[in-house]
Specification:
Mean pLDDT: 81
Order of helices and strands: HEEEEEEEEEEEEEEEEEEEEEEEEEEH
Shape: globular
Structural class: mainly beta
CATH topology of the largest domain: Immunoglobulin-like
Strand content: 35-45%
Radius of gyration: 31 Å
Oligomer: single chain
Length: 389
Amino acid sequence: MHRKLASLRVLASVSLMVVLPAGCKDDAAAKGDLITRATIGPDGGTLAGGGVELVIPAGALTAETDIELLTSARDLSARDFVQQGGAMELIPEGLGLRLPAELKFTGGSDDSVALFVQDGLTVAGAGASTWVNELGVIALASEGMRMTEMFEPMLGSSPTQPGMTFRDVAHFRVGLTNTPRFNVALSIYDFGQAYDKALNGTGEGDCGFELGGVQGGSLSAGCSDGPLTAKVGVTSAEIEFDVTPFQSGKLETPVVVGVIGGSDELAYQLGFLSFDTSPCYAETCSDYGTCEVQGDAAVCNCMEGFAPGEDLSCVCVPDCAGRNPASVCSSVVLPLPLGPITHQSSPPRTCRSSDSISVRGPAATSRPCASSSSLPLFTGCLRDAAAGR
């Protein structure tokens, strides 16, 4: 019995010795054969070989990176887009590029298009040359029937020649065929390196923009649910929606936006547009005024009792019109329960509507502003005074 167990242990050990090297060999085979490699850094560079050329622009990478092109056993055929020849893989797989790289295939036919994987979608380019912002599996395919048609807006064919510039909002109108769910990925590219923030958000998804005002369908998922900007459940042959900044915030310098959209089976590189926001975008003027653009600058048009302050704000000011500044505006104590809150002014001078006010005193519960008879120096300022602002 003990001898039989010992024999089994020997057999198990021999089996492990045989299986483990075979497993390692299979992993190496699954990785694919090396076609070419290149080390590319922040200044950009080109990887070429196997009928493929990848041109990475300056600024796309933040450090020197070894990039390889391997053979792949994957088949990216989708719907009637049929892969031509074998696929290839760019590694490190999933490596994101801050700016899109141009991917070019040579040797294809007139109806050949590039297929690539981005944001978990199989994507068809507009031809044998396309733009990618993520390394992964690529292939050449014969073009089939496109199920997504962009009606609005008119998009550019490359990030270096984007379509028109949109301000604050871009309206989309898309025609769809046999597409129960429309997936959209909106990627922001800062070619001028004007921003030191993550324009596409800090999570997994492309969260720089968000969708709203959806017609012809309903928003079923946002960028927090995966790598895409949004998913729309389609109920019509045509959908419309608005695109506005989300985690990107204010975009005072124009950026380029890449648009990918389509079904779960196959998405399409739809093109590129330029986008920025107005100087008044998302400015509230402290909720005591409205923001207006004068020339290229934003200014706050404040309501009565408030005047423009720093950082596009409206601040509380004393109402000294027709009063003696020395006797009336020099020191005022508000009655309890709001007081003591004291306004101190500069030495006697002529009061102006833009005179600033500083208040001090205990915080009090907000309530409607007092009338001018009970609070002669303020018009609409009681809430700010009570909060110590």
